[in-house]
Amino acid sequence: MNKHIGSQALWVFITLLTLMSLAFAATYSPGKPIYAAKLLALDGLNEKQTQKTVNDWQQLGIQQIFALDHIYQLPEFRKQLAKTNIKPWLIHQTFFSNHNDLSQTPDWFAITETGQYAQDNSKEGNWLAMACPNNADYKQQSIERAVKQVKAWQPYGLSIDFIRYFAFWELSHVKGHEGYDGHNDPLIDSCFCDTCMQLFFQYLNMEKPKALTTPTQLASWIHDNKQDEWVNFKVQTITSMVKDLVTAVKQVKPDIKINIHAVPWLAGEHNNAVQRITGQSIKELAPYVDYVSPMAYAEMMLKPARWMHDLVIDMKQQCSNQCEVIPAFQVSEMYDSGEITEKEFQSYIREASKAPSAGVVFWPWETLTQQQKNYIKTLTR
Ligand SMILES: [Zn+2]
User: Cα of 233 to ligand 1 centre, how many Å?
Assistant: First the structure.
């Protein structure tokens, strides 16, 4: 009798354990990557096209969408997304001038170490012009735009892009390209405008040497005498803008998630260019952000697929436990990078989503081929 009760109890216990583990497996899936899509130029969508686009994302199992404000502002886009579980990020382009014609407000332009306006003059990069990260008026209008849009549209997250000093990093490794000087430092430093110089010498707590009058003279003196302080000042500038943006948008949507688009250089690479040139320090930014998304565009940067995993590990280390890393990767040819084969596409997904990655972002979504979409479906179903 006792033996019978004992075996019955054991059976009940095993059944309960099985049911519990099944329920646990259904609700908890450690390491399951987020599949997201970043849009580039999804312009002029009518109602029907919008429905089809959103339907496509659902069919593919895309869980998050990163969209610029000219897409996000379409009422139909928001209406269709609201019917789904897809989480929309609003991309905020911070120091990229697309919302401002800097030639009309030259004081807002960042100034390079050769005294030029911070714009790339190559045929590939001539879309890029960047504002001074210390210009109070520019910063204010940028923050006001983010707040207004977040308040009106209530996105899942704010994805902070162009949050850095000027650099056309996409092709900075290519010989013959603007900024390439044949040495190990093909990168142009900025910003040496009057505002930045005034703030930097205040930061140093010293008078600006009278002999230094031009941006070139100032840059040369700073590089020779105050390089560490200069990098710290640049990092502080970028970090404080993120802090100000995050504080402002959280006042109108307290639970908003924050992502930043990170320049894809490893810590220390190119003589610490990520901080020295762009002013981005993931370690300093980590307390303010939930996600960091390196622009891991391997094809254009002539990198192997495993480099994406290296970037994830590097950035996750800097995040510590404060933020997750979700790399975006290039799905189609850009800047004559060459076609992306199916094998490359699959290896990019594999390397980009390897732990400790939180997932992958396909970019630009609108150039995905049917074959690539079919492969994504096999992963998300
Ligand atoms: Zn400046």
Answer: 12
